[in-house]
Amino acid sequence: MTEDLLAGLQAELDQRKQQGLLRRRRVLESAQSSHIQVDGREVLSFCSNDYLGLAQHPRLIAALQQGAASAGVGSGASHLITGHHHYHQQLEQALAAFVGLPAALLFSTGYMANFGVITALMGRNDAIFADKLNHASLNDAAVLSRARLYRYAHNDVAALKKLLQASQAPRKLVAVDAVFSMDGDLAPVPQLLALCEQYNAWLLLDDAHGFGVLGAQGRGVLHHFNVNSNRIIYMATLGKAAGVAGAFVAADAVLIDYLLQQARTYIYTTASPPALAASLLEALKIIEQEDERRAYLQALIATLKSGLKLQRWQLLDSATAIQPLMVGDNHSATQLSEYLLQQGILVPAIRPPTVPKGSARLRITLSAAHSVDDVQRLIAALNRAESRF
After folding, report:
1. Which end of the chain is least crowded, N or C, by CB within 10 Å?
2. DSSP-derived 3-state class of residue 331
3. Set 88, 135, 172, 209: catalytic member
4. Given this structure, which CATH class describes domain 58-289?
5. What are the structural domain ranges in the chain?
6. By three-state DSSP, how is residue 190 classified?
7. Residue 176: which of 155, 195, 161, 148 has the closest Cα?
8. Which of these is catalytic: 181, 337, 359, 367?
9. Taking the CB of residue 35, how many other CB atoms lie within 10 A of it?
10. Which helix (H) or strand (E) element contains residue 224?
11. pTM passes above 0.90
């Protein structure tokens, strides 16, 4: 009987391979940076979300070491027992002040943060309105909440308005990526907030890819658009531009207090190591003080856009560090990724279900850790590649 069960799983795996959808892990053997050692070879990497190049910054490493020396390696308990260290407390206060909201709550991952917010606030009789290109964590949390889920076409504000207009739900939530992780474009946040104000809905913004990069001093999408409201629930991750790990939710103090009581992914899990929070406090200082990192990153984006001379493959319209190169076919995207790897350049092929069917692509991510020569090398390889395929 067990053999039959395993055979069924193997058949599904074989089918995924045939469709060009089989995933595999690569083993990183160095620190995260623009040049990495992976699977036994050195490559130029355009895979990381380390947008500001902080993942191996000496000040963050020193803060982590000092934090571990004073607070130990593990937290030992959940936040509501004895796991909430003064490093966690300081970081929550600093994050709230940094993004300009009254209070913040730390979570171990962005996935857990989105799950915690949505399942705490929404129930059977409520309604969630989600962009069709939202991150999987928002979609999965909406399903788990048992609220009615309405998905609207990407960035289609008019479609969202019709859905909100028709809804009689007692509690409504619009959930959206602030920067879409596979397309790199931004949500129309001011228009979304206006609709939420008009139809009395919460607005949950997942700013995983905007925090540290967008807005004055890297304070995120709220500052990029200069918006604020007590109906905004702001989530951002701390393992991308901030260079470490974790996530936080910032909002009105009443909502944060409510999550502390009701968010199961916060209550029923061991707190992250306090040393990570110590390192993140140092990361916040660098993000705030070093505007030149963001300016340099924007210059690299401009270099990539101006240097590519492609006919069949095109960059999507993105002004962020996420620069997707649309290929279309799963096998072609994989083949292009493998060709680049042969040239010593690592760029991942992204295929369904991560992206819609027929929109397989290379997801190029730029970092302040890259040099101009690194980007020029990628440009030359891609320009050569199109003529060879």
Report:
1. N
2. helix
3. 209
4. alpha beta
5. 22-52+291-388, 58-289
6. helix
7. 155
8. 181
9. 16
10. helix 221-225
11. yes
